[in-house]
Amino acid sequence: METTNTARKEHWSKKREYILASAGNVVGLGNVWRFPYLCYKNGGGVFLLPYCFFAVLCGVPLFLLETVIGQYTQEGTITCWANVSPLAQGAGYSIIVIQLYSRAYIIILAWALLYLIYCFRDPLPWATCNNPWNTDRCIDISSLNQSAWLSGNLTLNRTSGHLPESSVSEFWERKLLSMSAGIEDVGTVQWEQLLCLLVCWVTCYFSIWKGVHYTGKVVYFTAVFPYVMLLILLIRGLTLPGAWQGMVFYLYPDPSRLADLQVWMDACSQVLFSYGVSSGSIITLGSYNKVKNNCYRDSLWLCALNSGTSLVAGFAIFSALGFMAHKQGIPVDMVVSSGPGLAFIAFPQAVAMMPLPQLWAACFFCMLLMLGLDTVFTGLETITSSVVDMFPAQMRRPWRREIFLLLLCLSCFIIQISLTTEGGVYQFQLIDHYGPNGACTLFVGFLQCVAVGWAFGSSRMCDAVEDMIGQRPCLFISLCWRYFTPLLCLICFICSFLVYQPLTSSRGYTYPSWAYLLGWAMTLSSVVVPFIWTVCKILINKGPLPQRLRSLWHPVGKSAAYKPQKELDRNEVNIKVLEAELGLDTNECLNVGI
Predict the structure, then answer these.
(1) Which helix (H) or strand (E) holds 166?
(2) Binding site for Na(+), residues?
(3) 266-296 residue pLDDT tens
(4) Start-end ranges of CATH 1.20.1740.10 in the chain?
């Protein structure tokens, strides 16, 4: 690995470290708990059509674009745009705002860690009603049958106050979360959650504190282990009775769903979310590559890996849900849920019905922890790298990076203490719904495509790719950067407001008006940042207004259009030839003015 100083950026020690880190970043919780549910909800196998449509026209082009920008400029999320289109630096700041909101996702790791700890009890605490937190309405797993009170129905009909509840739901809501009546009722801090949150932050800090040289070793475990666990769960799920019923339900096609706009919006948001585009992490990871790395091939393989993992995870999840439905003698749709409901209610209920439930539960929550950990610490690296690249002379000195990262993690931990309170889950749902939501990422994706496709020029960006790997991307990619991708991002950005629905919890709880205002403030904060930054730069710059706009629209100084790397390579060759002819070393050649 190349040693860093105040003037140079470090690189991955080996190419496979970049591949593993990128795979860990893009393959996250959304592949396991969101894609399978969306596929079932939006027409089964038919959902793959809009998913592939947006993957080809938005996901892959944006993934490649961000990788190329990071690798060629060797800069972080903000400073990389100075060599592409300075105007787009506002998008870099918007990404940082989104990443700060996304730090709230670490609470999911705290919940998963707490579940993992409880996995080593016999019987599993969520499988019975003989616990202090259970109520008289509790129904344990062995008693669940075709009655009206089953998993998803229980959580949806809780407001009646009379229906029985499953032991899994009571463990999740009354023990682990100790949920209050609403976001207004903050309640007390749950010390178990707080300790698990602290452990997660400490783990994230030490995973990246020494830079990519250290992170590259961590991802050998954190990126590979989830695939081992997923394979184990898939094999186990396929051998369960009723698994086939679940998988058929997962992909059973319903062509009529294609006429629903929400289906297309779900496909678009899932592609952007699971591919990790418009989050800055792809730019950051790519910036640690050597300039000659074949980023074109890597990007295509990583995108294929991400989509393939989503599809396989669906088989693992729905085979287990099919088993649970078979065991209870009910349709699969009565046990299906999404997000935390799938990870912390439906799937734990399914594994509790299997032989050796502790083993399968531990495998599942270990997989969730590793999937989430990679995504969280690459997000931290995105923020840290951006600051280091903005102030290299100050931040690349010994221990400056480590201290900044420590302060960042400590600040996030202190702020997130409120998420461990009895009302913390309501706060998390509010941040999740409005903070780093699909509209924000669509807007950032649109700005990036405009900067590359129009301000810098898609053909010039193709020159940059050719400069690095010796071949140009296909014409289709160039057309996507310039036309298809920005147009789709803009259309979906507008449509996201047309299909907007106010946030409500699974219990039917409606948030107060001030919470919705706060949520919209979070959404707009990342959207207005580029405009604020642009206005400030226009006011600060000197000269006539058209000149100021041109200076912000076009790249500063030499850029990829001038192929500086090729010129450098030719100079190196010339120097080596002269060395051989004159018997001089490089410094002597330069001293004599050659």
Answers:
(1) strand 165-166
(2) 24, 27, 31, 274, 306, 371, 374
(3) 999 999 999 999 999 999 999 999 999 999 9
(4) 15-119+186-540
